[in-house]
Structure formats: C-alpha cells, structure tokens
Amino acid sequence: MRKSLLVLLLWAMAAEAHVPALSNDTYPQPPQALDSQTRKAIQRFLLHNRILDTPHILDTAPYIIAAEAGRVLGANGERVHARGALDPAQLTYGIFRRGKVYIDPDSQELLGINADDIGTARFVMAGDVTTLAMERVTQEVRPGDRLLAAQPAAPLSNLLAQVPAQRITGRIIDVPRGVTQIGVLDAVTLNKGRRDGLMEGHLLSVKKTGETVRDRITDAVVKIPDERAGTLLVFRTYEKLSYGLVLGASRSLAVMDRFESPEQTQ
C-alpha cells in the first residue's frame, strides 16, 4: 500500500486496538495527508458520483429533449438539445439520471438520492432550446436526462485524518460501483452526514455484521457477535449521507456492515 495510506491505516488500527486517544502532542507531525495518486482516484470517483439531498433538485433541473439528427445516443462530440434555466456563463454541465433512493435502514427516513452520471456537455448556444456538445459519455443519453452544473474539484490537499470528537455510529448502505464484496480502496456510501457530525477526514472503524443463526440444541435464535473488520476514511459529506474510502480490511466488507468512531469500539 502506498506509504501515506499505510501510515493512516496503522494509526487507525492503533486507535481501534484501544490505544489511548492521541493528543495534539502525539498526533503525527505534520498530519498525514493522502498521496497524489489516491487524491486523483477520489477526484475521479467524485466526478462520476453525486448525491442529492432531495429528488426535487433533479426533478426541477434543465433536461435533454433530443440529440443531433433525432438520435439520442449522445456520442462524444455530438450535439444535444435541452430546455430549462441554463446559464451561458456555466460552460460545462453534467448529465444525470435519477438513481438509487437512499432510505435509512433503521429510521426509514429519506436520506437522499444518487444522481447517476451519464456524461458531460459544454454549452454551445442559448435559446428556448439550448444546444450543447457532448464531451464525455458513460452510457446512452435519453430525453428527460437532467443537467446540473459541474461540481468544482474537491480540495483534497487539505484532507487530514482525525478521529471524530463525538460518538458516531451508522451503516454502509451502498457501494456506488455495484460490487457486493467491498475491499481496500473501494468507495462506499454511509447513512450519516454533516448533521450527524461527520466531517471530511474522519477515520471510522468498520465492524462485520454477525449472522443470526438458530441454536440447534436449544432452538433459540442467536446473533453471532460483530467483529472488527476494517477502517474507513470519510472524504465527502452531504447533509444526511457521506462517501468513505476503505483504507484497510481484514476481510471482505459488505452493505449493512456497521461503522463507528474508533474510540467507541469494544
């Protein structure tokens, strides 16, 4: 593993192993940041993944009505046409489609939605019907796909690892790239966000959810204890959700595994 990631992981594992919380005097000086390759990987992930706090944001955004020559493929360089309040000063727009709706597994509260990345297009000509030129496509562009202003690059150079000051617990609720088993350097979606006290740079301990089994002797239903299984670094927070990067894992992680502040592990 790259050196800076290894430093972060070893420090987080020490916190998980009941080493007393590090004070300002013992915190690594200077604080350890992610190396450039890892920052670039996170930037690429953020380019293709976006969470919206409410469906209304996407449902009221400008939308594609047609592509060049009546086709809707939206190949690179092809012109597409859109309607809605598009700003000519905004040179690049992302094209998105409504994706997963995130519901809290415990409270059943709506936490947000995933805006599926379709591609990007640059502004060409304004009007009641605005013309844009495709710059990047991930899949077929369809009428009804929505346009959102491109997100600015995340300032990851100042991303520093730290243990949350308060108790925070939650669950991994999604893996944006669609795998079922989660490993090192995979990005995951967490069911906690800024309102819960999560911040970019927070280190979290992951516990593998124990199975519920039936005791064949007593016929009782018994839950196998959760086990410490990995470390997450939070790298983007939203109001009710966050993205985390798996820094280390002693076994495959999965959706619904639990995370918590390292100082809260038992």
TrEMBL record:
Residues 1-17 form the signal peptide. Keywords: Signal. This is Peptidoglycan-binding protein.
